[in-house]
Amino acid sequence: MKLLLIGNPNVGKTTLFNALTGGHGRTGNYCGVTVGVSERPSRFSGLGTVCDLPGLYSLDGMSMEETLAGDYIARQKREGTEFLAVQIADASTLVRALRLTRALLALGIPLVLGVTMCRRFRRRGGRIDCAKIGRSLGLRCFEVDALRKKSVAAFAGELARLTSGAGYRAECEAARSRKNGGGNDGKNDRGTELPEGYLPARATGGKEDRLFLNAGFALPAFFAAAGLVFFLTFGKGMPGDLLKSLAETLFSRLAEKAGEIIDSPTVRSLVCDGLILGAGGVVSFLPQIALMYLFLDLLEESGFMSALAVMTDGLFSGIGLSGRAAFSVLLGYGCTAAAITSTRALENRNVQRRAVAALYFVPCSAKLPVYLTLLSSVFENTFLGAVLLYVLGTGMGLCVSALFRKDDGGFVMELTEICPPDFLSVLKKLIFQIRQFIIKVSTVVLVFTVIVWFLSSFSFSGRVAAEESFLAQLCGVFRYAFYPMGITDWRAAFAAVSGLIAKENIAGMLAVLFPGGVAFDFPAACAYLTFVALLPPCVSAITACSRELGRGRAWGYAGLQIAFAFVCAYFVHFLLTGGARIALGILLAAGACAALGKAWRGVGRKPAEKNYRKGKT
Question: What is the DSSP pairing of strand 83-90 with strand 38-41?
Answer without folding.
Answer: unpaired
